[in-house]
Amino acid sequence: MSYDALSKYPNTEIAEIELRIAGELNPGPWIEHSINTGLAAKYIASKCDNLDPEKAYILGVLHDIGRRVGIVSQRHIIEGYNYCMGKGWEEAARICMTHSFMVQNVKADVGEWDVSDDDYAFINQYIETITYDDYDRLMQLCDSLATANGFCLLEKRFVDVHRRYGVNEYTIARWNAVFDIKEFFENKMGCSVYEVLPNVKETSFIDVPLWKAPPK
What we know:
Elements: H1 12-25, H2 30-45, H3 53-62, H4 75-87, H5 90-98, H6 117-129, H7 134-143, E1 146-147, E2 150-151, H8 154-165, H9 171-189, H10 200-204
């Protein structure tokens, strides 16, 4: 990979250091989830001619970096964006914003909007006006394929997320959007995404307790 884009995102070593530091600030399963999101993106990107596997890994590792500030809900979107922009990592910042919005509408997300009115307005305008590229779509897919324990069926991850955050009128549209993205990448790869991700069956059938944030 050429590092001409270093001003847009960090290299692998720096991304992993940033995630390690974030994990020390706010320990939790989101760290392993972030690594697995990056790995899923790397595996899928390696089968797509127009994507850089290492860049995909880095963007996946950093997609939830806003959680470094503590146990937050939708605030992690803007925190991650601002943190990466402060480093000059514009492409990483972009993924912090877009990874949650497979339906390009902020009302479609199910998390708590624990942000200021100004931040909400900024996120809304950003999502409404951006044109998604293949890296945006890839992170939206891989975020839905990766748990803290490994890679799983989309349906497993959907249930895990909505048991924690609930559902709304956009839930089915969100699921359908992810399935559409899955089909998009499978057409590019010429195989199922599950064929390139190890231990999907085993991880899908792991019975782990539902993670809940500790009381504040």
